[in-house]
Write a structure and sequence with these properties.
By secondary structure, this protein is mainly beta. Helices cover 2% and strands 51% of the residues. It contains 1 helix and 25 strands. Strand 21 and strand 22 (236-238) form a beta hairpin. The radius of gyration is 21 Å and the shape is globular.
Length: 289
């Protein structure tokens, strides 16, 4: 059995549901997109841009219109700067980012709205000098809006969005409810639900293991992480319940001496956890049930 099919047992069956969030455009101000762009400054691995057609990304590529986008592959990443120098974006592996709006309003304010259907993005933005300027990231479950801060979002395969703030404040909105996320805090938005109350952002990135059992060519695992974080086996995202619980069976090859798991928070901070197989007895070989 292949790894992908075996790991399907980790899936909790949550369906991806897109929540439509209204954008608060300012109707009295005319928007112009000319001269606005996001520019690729650094690349690693397999990254493609969608600007008319899809092709391998290059340093200096610009996303400058609605519908332009970028996709990072497995173990790949990209870094952007925003045209006016208001900030930068770090896009992690397996992430899709699409421009929804890049506009300069008639009063000189600038509006930057990006869609992130999946993956993880870290944003560092300076304080805006114009009261009508705004930067928003839209996900399948809600909106994160800032006016100058250091924050990150993570969107899992079920559409759950975690928003964490390192500096400043972010406002997260869904289902007509807005929650401010201050420095050192995190909030979770699930499709069809309002944002959760904020709590302290986990930066320890620990795994509370409950099961580590080796049985022939399979590793049976279960445990718990902070529910706002994301768990990976190698580069593959694993399903985690609302409480942070996970379980599954990992197929093992004869050459495997260890299995590596990674916990990542919405800021993109990560910690690896290694299970050394040679330290685990084979329960089937020992005649255990």
């Amino acid at each position: 059995m292949g790894r992908s099919s075996a790991l399907s047992r980790l899936t909790l069956g949550a369906m991806f549901v897109t929540t439509v969030i209204g954008i608060a455009y300012v109707p009295a101000l005319q928007a112009q997109s000319a001269g606005r762009w996001l520019e690729v400054r650094r690349l690693s691995g397999n990254v493609t841009t969608q600007v008319g057609s899809s092709r391998a990304a290059r340093i200096g590529d610009r996303l400058s219109a609605a519908g332009h986008g970028l996709t990072t592959g497995r173990l790949s990443s990209a870094n952007f700067t925003v045209d006016t120098g208001i900030g930068s974006l770090a896009v992690a592996q397996n992430t899709q980012m699409i421009v929804r709006q890049l506009a300069t309003l008639s009063d000189g304010s600038r509006v930057t709205i990006l869609d992130v259907p999946r993956g993880q993005v870290r944003i560092q933005a300076r304080s805006f000098t114009h009261t009508n300027s705004r930067l928003e990231l839209h996900t399948p479950s809600g909106v994160a809006a800032v006016r100058g801060t250091d924050f990150g979002i993570a969107v899992d395969e079920a559409g759950k969005t975690s928003v964490a703030t390192l500096e400043g404040q972010v406002e997260v909105s869904a289902q007509s409810i807005t929650v401010p996320v201050d420095a050192g805090e995190v909030s979770i938005i699930r499709p069809g639900e309002p944002p959760t109350s904020t709590r302290t952002l986990d930066r320890e990135l620990d795994i509370q293991w409950q099961t580590q059992e080796r049985r022939a060519h399979r590793l049976h695992i279960s445990g718990r992480i902070d529910a706002a974080n994301t768990l990976f086996l190698g580069a593959e995202e694993l399903a985690v319940s609302r409480s942070g619980y996970f379980e599954g069976v990992v197929p093992l090859a004869n050459r495997n001496r260890s299995v590596v798991f990674t916990v990542r928070n919405p800021l993109g901070e990560s910690r690896t956890h290694r299970i050394r197989l040679w330290q685990l007895p084979d329960l089937d070989r020992n005649g255990s049930d």
